[in-house]
Amino acid sequence: MQSFLEPCIKIAQEAGQVIMEIYDQEDIGEQQKSDDTPVTRADIAANKVLIEGLMKLTPNIPIMSEESRIPPLNERQNWTRYWLLDPMDGTGEFILKSGDFAVNIALIENNKPILGIIHWPVNNTTYFACASFGSFKREHNNPCNKDQKLQVIKHEKLTLAVSRRQNISVVSCYLDRDFDTIAVGSCSLKACIVAEGKADCFLRIGPTGEWDTGASQVIVEQAGGEIKSAEFEDISYNQREITENPDFIVMGHNDWPWKEMITPHRRTEFL
């Protein structure tokens, strides 16, 4: 699977370039989907780039994308390997011009993510990982720099990755201690912040899809962290009709007593 990394990074960059072309335009074609989440011309254009690129690279591997028709479970339950895409994670941030949005590509094998790529178009930075290979960050604007190997670290004071407009009091309900924060939009970018050691944890309270965690999970795990549901159970992929995730926790260094910090009575409220 490691051989897929470089061509997929290139495909993600191409999608990012298309996104940035629309980002600078006045009319981004914002609409509301049937689930009341926003979509723009950038989401659709990036989706097209990703699907065309992956179909050319691996014509026999099926693709599931947030911005395409999701096949019913009986059509996909026997897939042993498939691409899982979020063409632009952080559409709301794109609309608000915060710069915090990302292209997500994951390869799922036997219901587990084994390869992940998260490209941050505004910074022209790519996070990528492959099972048994490690997790890395590449800054394309600095080609002389070597890829940075990612490793979670334990901060002296617990540091949470949070959304820029998040009500911190909501997050504090789920922890038994004080914490510092680092603000960044997009689920996948917050997971990357944990993977590269800038934060210890990210609590996601609210609806997400499997495409929001697929690439993140590989990157975080290969950096030494974990992504689990709020009940500390594995996130499932392609095993249910519904593709919505439970609330989840992105955890960094295992020296933190995560189960004790997310107290039992709070964990029941988490769901």
From TrEMBL:
<dbReference type="GO" id="GO:0000103">
    <property type="term" value="P:sulfate assimilation"/>
</dbReference>
<comment type="function">
    <text>Converts adenosine-3',5'-bisphosphate (PAP) to AMP.</text>
</comment>
<keyword id="KW-0378">Hydrolase</keyword>
<dbReference type="GO" id="GO:0005886">
    <property type="term" value="C:plasma membrane"/>
</dbReference>
<dbReference type="GO" id="GO:0050427">
    <property type="term" value="P:3'-phosphoadenosine 5'-phosphosulfate metabolic process"/>
</dbReference>
<dbReference type="GO" id="GO:0000287">
    <property type="term" value="F:magnesium ion binding"/>
</dbReference>
<feature type="binding site">
    <location>
        <position position="212"/>
    </location>
    <ligand>
        <name>Mg(2+) 2</name>
    </ligand>
</feature>
<dbReference type="InterPro" id="IPR050725">
    <property type="entry name" value="CysQ/Inositol_MonoPase"/>
</dbReference>
<feature type="binding site">
    <location>
        <position position="66"/>
    </location>
    <ligand>
        <name>Mg(2+) 1</name>
    </ligand>
</feature>
<keyword id="KW-0479">Metal-binding</keyword>
<feature type="binding site">
    <location>
        <position position="86"/>
    </location>
    <ligand>
        <name>Mg(2+) 2</name>
    </ligand>
</feature>
<feature type="binding site">
    <location>
        <position position="212"/>
    </location>
    <ligand>
        <name>substrate</name>
    </ligand>
</feature>
<dbReference type="InterPro" id="IPR006240">
    <property type="entry name" value="CysQ"/>
</dbReference>
<dbReference type="InterPro" id="IPR000760">
    <property type="entry name" value="Inositol_monophosphatase-like"/>
</dbReference>
<keyword id="KW-0472">Membrane</keyword>
<keyword id="KW-1003">Cell membrane</keyword>
<feature type="binding site">
    <location>
        <position position="66"/>
    </location>
    <ligand>
        <name>Mg(2+) 1</name>
    </ligand>
</feature>
<feature type="binding site">
    <location>
        <position position="89"/>
    </location>
    <ligand>
        <name>Mg(2+) 1</name>
    </ligand>
</feature>
<feature type="binding site">
    <location>
        <position position="212"/>
    </location>
    <ligand>
        <name>Mg(2+) 1</name>
    </ligand>
</feature>
<dbReference type="Pfam" id="PF00459">
    <property type="entry name" value="Inositol_P"/>
</dbReference>
<feature type="binding site">
    <location>
        <position position="66"/>
    </location>
    <ligand>
        <name>substrate</name>
    </ligand>
</feature>
<keyword id="KW-0460">Magnesium</keyword>
<comment type="similarity">
    <text>Belongs to the inositol monophosphatase superfamily. CysQ family.</text>
</comment>
<keyword id="KW-0997">Cell inner membrane</keyword>
<dbReference type="GO" id="GO:0008441">
    <property type="term" value="F:3'(2'),5'-bisphosphate nucleotidase activity"/>
</dbReference>
<feature type="binding site">
    <location>
        <position position="89"/>
    </location>
    <ligand>
        <name>Mg(2+) 2</name>
    </ligand>
</feature>
<protein>
    <recommendedName>
        <fullName>3'(2'),5'-bisphosphate nucleotidase CysQ</fullName>
        <ecNumber>3.1.3.7</ecNumber>
    </recommendedName>
</protein>
<feature type="binding site">
    <location>
        <position position="86"/>
    </location>
    <ligand>
        <name>Mg(2+) 1</name>
    </ligand>
</feature>
<feature type="binding site">
    <location>
        <position position="86"/>
    </location>
    <ligand>
        <name>Mg(2+) 1</name>
    </ligand>
</feature>
